[in-house]
Design a protein that fits this description.
Chain lengths: ~240, ~240
């Protein structure tokens, strides 16, 4: 497992409380990283190599963690992709040109129990760091209809996390932070831009071209493009 | 990931509802497998290679799954051991000769958020199998004081599981079965013996000798040995 101690000396991360930030390489989690840093946390970013079909997002994660001065960055190997059942991990075509209004159906890009698995491992990692704070860029407004992005899932997971761990049982309160949960994509882009996030580093497309260009037609591209338009901010995405 | 289709033809597993059984190679999970089979499930066993210091339990899992005619067996690689923080995965001495009455303290053999991570991945696997039933040998009576073996954790996880998945949101009810939760070790051994479990195949020791013999002195050995004594059943364990 690559574990990079990024800029351990030039920034005094040691005086800040540690937090674990789930990083996907996309627009949302990069914004969450900036928000957690603004809140004063030493941010330990965690990305998952879960058998996704393209590696662009893992490369983006590493670039973002380094550029945004994360306290450390880990890529965790997790072979849930081998279970199959999703267009993001199996050889199933990514849907294109869906209407935003139809995105409340759970699409084939859903990965079984992904956020639950990611958050559970992030919690295990946090516990070894002595951290009670997890950040995830879940969003229940401009999203693809995944059940594990909904507020009721996050709240239930947070409750379970406090019962699952020595840290929780020991009188500490674990907090699962979802600062984007009720924000539109445009609002997220506005906040991130104010915090200095360079969105040209981020990768959202579910089905990029071999050269890494975004397709512009999958759910993720459609939501991203509309977000920049609504925010009135220039979209730095390289569309293929 | 090894994925063994065990006896796919000689037993008609296809007509039974599928269930995922977490298998650790120990006494409890083997008994749970027998109980789930008795209930009529096609049992897909799932073991984790999570960086535990000794491999005996994974070998035991494979042997048990095959001998007990599981529908399939998987070993899932999961590098939570690299996070450290437990005597079961890091180079920390396993405690010996603890009094059973003191085992309510959480010991150093606790692995951060282990059952939450295991159950989350089991749920992802179950969802791809179209299964709504998970079985885990958690026990809150004769146990080592781990927070993630308590009934309140299991109940909370079950609730989260139904919110986390397409399966749960789709009107199905996911059930996390913990048939051993309120049983003593002696009762577990009695039930398993009635169901024909061969406990000589199972491995419980946290700190086996190089030849695989059980130490007889770690928490797990102490609880196991006392269980056989109380059940009045001959202990088949090979103590080093």
């Amino acid at each position: 497992m690559p574990d990079q101690a990024l800029n351990p000396s030039c920034e005094n991360h040691a005086n800040k409380p540690p937090a674990v930030i789930l990083l996907s390489g996309g627009l949302d989690s990069s914004t969450v990283l900036a928000m957690a840093q603004r809140q004063g946390f030493a941010c330990h970013t965690l990305a998952f190599d879960y058998g996704q079909r393209h590696r662009n997002e893992l490369d983006a994660c590493t670039h973002i963690a380094s550029s945004m001065n994360a306290a450390s960055h880990r890529i965790f190997n997790l072979d849930i992709g081998s279970f199959g059942g999703s267009a993001l991990t199996a050889d199933i075509e990514v849907p294109k040109d869906r209407e935003e209004s139809n995105m409340t159906d759970i699409p084939i890009t859903y990965v079984p129990a992904r956020n639950l698995v990611f958050l559970s491992i992030a919690l295990a990692y946090a516990e070894t760091l002595g951290s009670t704070d997890l950040f995830i860029g879940a969003n229940a407004i401009d999203y693809s209809g995944y059940p594990d992005c909904r507020p009721e899932f996050i709240a239930s997971f947070n409750e379970t996390a406090n019962l699952a761990t020595k840290l929780g049982v020991g009188g500490n309160t674990i907090s699962v932070h979802t600062p984007l949960l009720e924000m539109t994509k445009a609002q997220i882009i506005q906040v991130g831009t104010e915090l200095g996030v360079d969105y040209s580093m981020t990768h959202s497309c579910y089905d990029p071209s071999p050269s890494g260009g975004a397709c512009g037609r999958c759910d993720s591209c459609i939501l991203r493009r509309a977000g920049f338009e609504q925010a009135g901010i220039k979209d730095p995405t390289n569309y293929a």
